[in-house]
Amino acid sequence: MNTDLLLELGLKRNEAKIYEALLKYGGSGVSTIALRSKIDRRTVYDTLRKLVDKGLVYEIFGQKETTYEAVDPTKLLELAQEKVHKLETAMPGFLSAYQKHLTPERAYLYKGIEGVKNYIRLMLQTGEDIYTLGGKGAWLDPRLQMFVEWFLKEAKKKGIKLHNIYDYEVQKSMPHGPPTLSAKYKFLPKEASSSGAMDVFGEYVVTFSGMEVGTMSDDLTIFVIASPNLAESYRKWWKVLWDSLPDVQRRN
Description:
Elements: H1 3-8, H2 13-25, H3 30-37, H4 41-53, E1 57-60, E2 67-70, H5 74-100, E3 106-111, H6 112-126, E4 130-135, H7 145-158, E5 162-166, H8 168-173, E6 184-187, E7 196-201, E8 204-212, E9 215-226, H9 228-244
Parallel strand pairs: 4-5, 5-6
Antiparallel strand pairs: 1-2, 3-9, 4-7, 7-8, 8-9
Helix pairs in contact: 2-3, 2-4, 6-7
């Protein structure tokens, strides 16, 4: 079924196997659970007690033997929400400790799709407008769909605006720019096309390698530079370039 997902929620492997067996086959006694989950009987006893304590299993007392039933799986959502609440409560302390050790200027790397998510979160934390140069519309990669939808909602709440200067190739495949990603956009001339791209927001300058129109490569590398002075310089250069480019001819 979904053993890996249960493990991500914090269950031990034996707990996940027994819970799945109870969901699949219904309530049963310890001996039957041991056979169905392929776990030895003594371990099943111990694991069932832990599942009862977690509120995922309950006991049914009968005349012959005690049987065990899985609690409604929506209980898993409750467990996940409890973890999120605990993390949110602890987050101010985590951020305070993290920010104490940040140097005013620094540089680091992110890799792949998960790295993209990290830098997108950074955009939200910064809370300032985003200026893109050489954009490829790579945020439309299907692997990022749900994450980007979440980002756009949060960005709207924070009043963050996206300003994009796309590569020429994006104009060919998406003449009016990737949908939903920005209200303002222009296109570079063909001779300026490249495999790289850049974002500037807050004190950050972020550059990319390994991008294609509408998708991201698995080995994408993201170079992050935190430097207020450098970021302000790049923003000025971006705006000069923006003013020199022709407006997009919109079609009705």
